[in-house]
Amino acid sequence: MTIIETIYKLLSSLFIILILLILFFGQNWQAFRASRQIRRSLKDLEQWRKYGIKQLIRLIEPLTSETVTEPDIKNFISELLDYFAIPLEELNTENYNLWSSLLIQQQHRFKEMIKSFIPKISEPTLYIIIALINATREIDSILKKGQHNLTIGEKTNGYWYLLQTASEITQAMLKARTYRILLDSLLLGYPIGDSIGPLSIKELVNQISEKKDHNQKKINEKTLNDEYISQEIQFEGRTLICLRTKGPEPQVGHPSMILREIVEKLSKEKIKISMILSIDAYAKLEVEQSGTISQGLGIVVGGDTKANIEKFLIEEYIALKDPSVLLEAIICRESVEEAVFPMTDQIKNSIPKIIRNIKNTIRNQTTEGDTIIIIGIGNSLGIS
Hints:
- The protein is α/β, with parallel strands linked by helices.
- The protein has helices at 3-60, 70-82, 96-117, 123-156, 159-188, 196-210, 255-268, 305-321, 336-340, 345-348, 351-365; strands at 220-224, 228-235, 238-245, 273-283, 293-297, 326-334, 371-376.
- The protein folds into two domains: 12-188, no CATH class; 193-376, 3-Layer(aba) Sandwich (Rossmann fold).
- The chain is built from eleven helices and seven strands.
- The model has no long low-confidence stretch (mean pLDDT 87).
């Protein structure tokens, strides 16, 4: 037998052995790799969760009495993290209002619980703590779900189950990472990418009010439900009702509730709304440039489940109330990370274009004497 034949037989034997190993142990090896990937992700999530709790303790501890210990604070934070609103069995058009009401009640309950534990807390600190709790709770929820799925997969030796969990947690980590970034942004107190809507409204009102126009009336400013600032101002013969969430506390508010309140009030005064123009940050595709401004039709509101509910409630109410109302939307394209980072110059520099688009839309789509609602959707962090 020649050397070449010997080598050929040896390689053939090794190939057969490799095929057998793949057949009998391939799934186990992939399950092992999936488990390792899941554990690495869970380790990061655990660190992010601890970081959120640490920042909450740092904020709460100086505001409590000397009799309150750190374990007491940790127990209180755990109570807030575990507080839940049970999702409705089926989320459809009939019960969107109920689910929205439950979410509002949950926020009110948070405020009551925090004020009860920290009686002397200021309003700005209260909202920061609520925002930190919400961000940490999202991380905590992803962590617990990942731990549960990993345990089930390993107990049952579920190969496909572990692979599916590894795939899901990869997507979940993208979401969790944004909340980890948000924790730092909330503590810095600067406007974030998602603040583009409220900040554009503020700049629009300032720009119009500073214009030397003897016909310009004094701005009629109101605070609505301690969530929104409403500013009524005249622009080229039109009445603009400009709405934005109240800052500098981190709030996103409930735009459906505020819009309904405004529309009903104007309806009683026999004032017809010609247009509702909404401005918000919008998730960009990887091929798109950050800060790009686009305009279209409809209502633009956020991107999570709560935002979708708000969007539906606005659309349903306006369509039933008066389908002739024009719905215009302006978006600023941002990545998920940019939406929670302190606002970059690239995003901030898009505000003048947003304001130009607002003015041109009003000039081209409405006439003198019309009343237009302009609402800036987004987080009011750092915007006074």
